[in-house]
From TrEMBL:
InterPro entries linked: Nudix_hydrolase, NUDIX_hydrolase-like_dom_sf, NUDIX_hydrolase_CS, NUDIX_hydrolase_dom, Nudix_hydrolase_domain
Region of interest (Disordered), ranges: 1-20
Record's protein name: NUDIX hydrolase
GO terms under biological process: AMP biosynthetic process; ATP biosynthetic process
Amino acid sequence: MAERDTPTPAPDAAGPVATDEVAGAGGVVFRPSGEVLLLGHREGSWVFPKGHVDPGESPLEAALREVAEEAGVRAHCPDETQRDETRYVNARGQARRITWFLLLTDDRAPALREALFPRGGFFTPEAAGAKLSFPEDRALLGRMLRRFEALRREAR
């Protein structure tokens, strides 16, 4: 399994944040067609691109960097308020708090560059929901899909 073997329920978003929690950021990346980017971890799980936030880096900057590094996809954020958050404890017992951004791209396919993620692609939301390995990621996909569809309606 990938790093996140043992997800735990997220505490109330308004509640206190553990001081030893490690901040991360990631992107739920949509193509104009509504397909969403997933990466296949070398140990078998399917996830959204994400990673750590470097010192001095904003969560959005980290999300865009991680999408570019892990998937080779150029993305942009149409609205920084279209964000979400998940919390979990990874397999090493480390508490993680990930800030997710709704990102858009015109790229047709990922240019996979990292051995950690040998597989990846854009999938319909239905196929992505079936592939995602973690229940909190499936719930995140549902929330971000509703936001993506609302943005698409507003653009018409």
